[in-house]
Design a protein that fits this description.
- 42% of the residues are buried.
- The strands form three sheets. This protein has a six-stranded mixed β-barrel. Strands 13-14-20-16-19-17 form a six-stranded mixed barrel. A four-stranded antiparallel sheet has the order 12-21-11-22.
- A hairpin with a 2-residue loop joins strand 17 and strand 18.
- It folds into three domains: 181 residues, no CATH class; 247 residues, no CATH class; 216 residues, no CATH class.
- About 2% of the residues have low confidence.
- It is of the alpha+beta class.
- It is 50% helix and 17% strand.
- The protein contains 25 helices and 22 strands.
C-alpha cells in the first residue's frame, strides 16, 4: 500500500515539478531565463536586434523560430521534422553543448554561409544508428545540402519537440521591421537583475522603439514570461496542482490504511506490551521500536515506490508523445530522489503516529484484566480506527469526484459541435518559402495547382484552403464598418480574421446562411469581398442586415482597403479550447489576401488516412524540397491537440481507482480484524440462534459509521473545493449531482462488497469449536 502511494506521488511530483518549477532539463538555471514576446504575440528581427543591443538586464538574448523541414539524402526515406532556427548564441545562453561535434558560431548565421544542422539525440539514435561518423556528413534539408555539425545530449529538446536545429539566417524580408519573423525570443538575466527590473527596462526600450518607429511599433510593447507562464499557462497549472493534490490524497489513504494495520497488530500484542511495561520498560522505548519498524517499512516501500514512479513517468511520456512538455520529464534527478526520500520519511511518521499515541494512553491493568480482547483493544482504539477509515473514504470520494468531473469536462469538449463535420477530412499544413516563390503570383499559382492535383486524386470529394484550422486561434485586428458611428464601431473593436479559398465551407460541411460563398472570380483585380459569421451579425444586431456593408481592417494602426460583405456563414469555433463559443469572425478570399502558410482540407469518400501517402506524393511531384507537416485526418489533429487533457483525465481516473481500492482495502482490513477478535461473541450469538442476516448485519454494521461519516465529509469537502476546480472544468459544476451521485454509489457499493468477505467468514464460525477452545 505504501509503495503504491509513494510511487504515484513521486511520479506526479516529477511531472508537476517539471511543468511548474524546473523547466527544461539540462538547461542551466531555468529560473534565470525569461521568454520575450510582444503584445502582438510576435517579434520582428530588427526589434530583437534592438533588444539585444540595448537591454542591460540580460546577459544575452537569443531568437528562435519553428519551421518544418524535410530531411533526405542520408539513405533513408524523406521525412518531415519540426526544426528550430536559433541564433548562434542560443545554446551558449542555455548552458548546453553538443555531446558530439560543435555548437553554432556567429559565422554560421551570416548570409551566404554554408548550411549546417545539429541533431536531437533520439533522431541520431534512430535514423543514424548512433554513428559518430555522422559529424561532417552531408544531408539535404528541403533539398539544400547541409552539413551535420553536432548531436545534442539525451533528453534535451528546446523549446518544444524539435528534432533539428539550424542557425537562424535572416532573409531580406525578415530584416524589415514590419515583418513578424518569430513568435518569441529568450534571454538570461544578468547577475543582480530581477524579472521586475528587466520588465521595467524592456518597457522603456519599447517606448523608445514606438517613438522611433511609430508606424510599426506603436502597439508592440515587449512582454516577459517565465517558463510556466509561457509554456504551461494558468489552466494547465491549476490542472497540475489538482493532480498533485489527488496523489497526495492517495498517499494519505495508503498511510491511513497502514496506520490502521499497525495499530491492530499492536493491539494483538497488547498483553506482551503490558508485561514489558510492568517489568520496567519505558513507553519511549516501545515507541522507538514502533517508529523503527515504520521507518524500515516506509524505506522498503520507498524503494519499491521509486520503481513504480519510473514506470508511471514512462507511461505518461508515452501517452503525451508528440506534444508539449512530456519530453522534458525526468525521474532520475536529485530533486526526484530527495522528494521520494522525504515523503517516505513522512509516511513513516504518519503511519506510526496512531500507534505512538495509543502507547502513551495505554493502561496496563485494563489490558491484563481483559486479555486484550475487543476490537483494537477497546472503544477508544476502535474510534481511532473508524476515524482513519472515515478519512480514507472521504479522501477517496474527493479523488473519485475529481476524476468524474474531469472526465465529464473532457467529454463536453469532445462532444461540442464546432460548426463543421470533421469526419472524412484529411488536412495538412503547407508552407512555401518566399526564397523559392518570391512573388505573390507564384504563391497563388502554386496553391491553385495543388488544389487541382489533390481534387483529381481518386476518393477525394472537395479540397479547400484556410489560414487557420478550426478551433485554433485566428489573428485579431481592429475594424471599422462604413457609415457606422465611431463610438460603436471605432478602433476599439476587434474581430478575428481568416483567409480561405473557394469551397472552404462546402468542404467542411459548414453553411452559408445568407449571401454567397467565395468563387474563383474573387481575384486580386475584382471587387474586394468578405464573409462574416453569425456571431459577427449578432454583435451588430442593432444594424440593418450586414450584406452589402463595407468593412475594413486595420494592420499596425494602418487602415486597409474597404471590402464588401457578400455572405454570412454559420459559426465555426476558433480560438476556444473549450470549443463552446464562436467569436465574431471575418473571412477574406485567398486570392485577394494570399499567405505563404496555408492549411489544406480535403473531404474524402474513403478513409482519409488511406490517402496520406498519395497526398505526400502529389506535393513532392510539384516540389520535392517542400516539407509536408501535420498530414493527418482532421479528427486525429483534434485528438492530438487535446492530448494533454485526455491524458490528465486518464491519470485522474487511474488515481481514483487506486484511491477506491485502497479505501475499500482499509475498510476490509478493519472489519476482518473485528471479526477475528469477536469469534467468541459471534459463536455465542450463533449458539443462541442468531440468523444469517443478523450475523451479516452485525459485521456490516462495523463499516456503517465510518462509511457514512466519510461519505458525508467527502461530499462537503468536494463542494468546498469548487473555487479550485471550477476554472479547469467545461460546463460542469463541482456540486453536480450527476457526478457526485455515481461517485457516492461506487464507493458505497465497493465498500459493502469489501465487507462481504469478512461477513462470509463470520458465518462459517462453528459455535461448538469456539466455545470448546474458550
Amino acid at each position: 500500500m505504501l509503495a503504491v502511494g509513494i510511487g504515484v506521488n513521486a511520479a506526479a511530483f516529477s511531472v508537476a515539478n517539471t511543468a511548474l518549477f524546473k523547466g527544461f532539463p539540462r538547461v542551466q538555471d531555468n529560473d534565470r531565463i525569461l521568454y520575450l514576446t510582444t503584445t502582438r504575440n510576435a517579434v520582428s528581427y530588427p526589434d530583437y536586434q534592438d533588444w539585444q543591443s540595448q537591454a542591460r538586464s540580460f546577459e544575452r538574448i537569443a531568437l528562435v523560430r519553428g519551421v518544418f523541414t524535410t530531411l533526405s539524402g542520408d539513405g533513408g526515406a524523406p521525412a518531415t521534422y519540426f526544426t528550430s532556427q536559433v541564433t548562434a548564441n542560443g545554446f551558449a545562453l542555455l548552458g548546453v553543448t553538443p555531446i558530439l561535434g560543435r555548437d553554432f558560431v556567429p559565422s554560421d548565421q551570416q548570409p551566404g554561409a554554408a548550411p549546417v544542422v545539429i541533431l536531437r539525440n533520439d533522431l541520431w539514435r534512430t535514423r543514424f544508428g548512433r554513428s559518430p561518423s555522422v559529424i561532417g556528413a552531408t544531408v539535404r534539408l528541403n533539398g539544400v545540402p547541409t552539413v551535420v555539425i553536432g548531436v545534442m545530449p539525451a533528453d534535451f529538446s528546446f523549446p518544444e519537440n524539435q528534432a533539428l536545429w539550424t542557425p537562424l539566417v535572416p532573409t531580406q524580408t525578415a530584416l524589415e521591421r514590419e515583418t513578424f519573423y518569430a513568435r518569441y525570443a529568450f534571454g538570461r538575466l544578468a547577475p543582480g537583475a530581477t524579472r521586475e527590473s528587466a520588465a521595467a527596462e524592456m518597457e522603456a526600450i519599447g517606448r523608445q522603439l514606438a517613438s522611433a518607429y511609430p508606424n510599426t511599433n506603436s502597439n508592440r510593447s515587449p512582454v516577459l514570461h517565465d517558463f510556466r507562464e509561457f509554456f504551461i499557462g494558468d489552466n494547465s497549472t491549476k490542472t497540475y496542482q489538482a493532480l498533485w493534490a489527488a496523489v497526495g490524497f492517495v498517499l494519505l489513504i495508503a498511510c491511513g490504511n497502514v496506520a490502521n494495520l499497525l495499530l491492530t497488530r499492536l493491539v494483538r500484542r497488547s498483553r506482551d506490551i503490558s508485561i514489558r511495561l510492568a517489568l520496567g520498560a519505558g513507553r519511549g522505548q516501545v515507541i522507538r521500536v514502533i517508529l523503527l519498524e515504520s521507518v524500515l517499512l516506509a524505506g522498503l516501500a520507498g524503494i519499491l515506490g521509486w520503481w513504480i514512479a519510473q514506470f508511471c513517468v514512462r507511461a505518461y511520456v508515452l501517452a503525451q508523445k508528440g506534444g508539449g512538455t512530456a519530453v522534458l520529464i525526468s525521474s532520475a534527478d536529485a530533486q526526484f530522489l530527495g522528494y521520494t526520500t522525504v515523503i517516505s520519511i513522512a509516511s513513516a511518521v504518519l503511519v506510526s503516529l496512531p500507534a505512538a499515541v495509543w502507547i502513551t494512553r495505554f493502561k496496563i491493568n485494563n489490558t491484563l484484566n481483559d486479555n486484550g480482547r475487543g476490537v483494537a483493544g477497546g472503544g477508544r482504539t476502535k474510534r481511532v480506527a473508524d476515524l482513519l477509515i472515515a478519512a480514507e473514504i472521504a479522501l477517496a470520494l474527493i479523488v473519485l469526484t475529481g476524476a468524474g468531473l474531469m472526465a465529464r469536462s473532457v467529454f463536453n469538449v469532445y462532444a461540442a459541435h464546432i460548426g463543421i463535420n470533421a469526419k472524412n477530412v484529411l488536412t495538412m499544413s503547407m508552407y512555401i518559402p518566399r526564397e523559392h516563390y518570391p512573388s505573390i503570383v507564384e504563391q497563388v499559382l502554386f496553391f491553385r495547382r495543388l488544389v487541382a492535383r489533390l481534387e483529381a486524386v481518386p476518393g477525394v470529394q472537395a479540397v479547400a484552403l484556410a489560414s487557420v484550422p478550426p478551433t485554433e486561434a485566428a489573428a485579431h485586428a481592429p475594424y471599422e464598418i462604413a457609415s457606422a458611428s465611431p463610438l460603436e464601431e471605432g478602433s476599439q473593436s476587434t474581430v478575428a480574421q481568416m483567409t480561405v479559398s473557394p469551397g472552404y465551407f462546402r468542404t467542411l460541411e459548414a453553411s452559408i446562411v445568407s449571401g454567397r460563398e467565395f468563387s474563383e472570380l474573387d481575384g486580386p483585380s475584382s471587387t474586394l469581398v468578405g464573409i462574416v459569421n453569425q456571431s459577427f451579425v449578432r454583435r451588430h444586431s442593432h444594424m440593418e442586415p450586414v450584406l452589402g456593408k463595407r468593412l475594413r481592417l486595420f494592420q499596425d494602426g494602418i487602415p486597409q482597403a474597404w471590402f464588401t460583405i457578400v455572405g454570412v456563414a454559420s459559426d465555426i469555433v476558433q480560438d476556444d479550447r473549450t470549443r463552446q463559443h464562436a467569436e465574431p469572425l471575418v473571412y477574406v478570399p485567398y486570392q485577394q489576401r494570399p499567405q505563404q502558410n496555408m492549411f489544406v482540407f480535403a473531404r474524402t469518400r474513403v478513409d482519409p488516412a488511406a490517402l496520406v501517402t498519395e497526398f505526400s506524393a502529389q506535393v513532392y511531384a510539384m516540389d520535392a524540397n517542400l516539407p509536408v507537416p501535420a498530414l493527418m485526418p482532421l479528427t486525429d489533429r483534434f485528438a492530438r491537440a487535446y492530448g494533454f487533457e485526455r491524458t490528465i483525465t486518464a491519470v485522474f481516473v487511474v488515481f481514483a481507482a487506486i484511491a477506491l481500492l485502497l479505501a475499500v482495502a482499509g475498510l476490509y482490513a478493519i472489519v476482518a480484524h473485528s471479526v477475528r477478535t469477536r469469534h467468541l461473541e459471534i459463536g455465542i450469538r450463533r449458539a443462541m440462534g442468531a440468523t444469517t442476516w443478523q450475523i451479516r448485519g452485525l459485521v456490516l454494521g462495523q463499516a456503517a459509521a465510518p462509511l457514512v461519516v466519510g461519505l458525508t465529509t467527502g461530499v462537503s469537502v468536494s463542494v468546498a473545493l469548487a473555487p479550485v476546480l471550477e476554472p479547469i472544468l467545461v460546463r460542469v459544476s463541482v456540486a453536480d449531482p450527476a457526478t457526485l451521485g455515481p461517485a457516492v454509489c461506487a464507493l458505497s457499493v465497493s465498500a459493502v462488497a469489501g465487507c462481504l468477505l469478512p461477513a462470509r467468514h463470520a458465518l462459517r464460525i462453528d459455535p461448538a469449536i469456539v466455545l470448546r477452545h474458550e
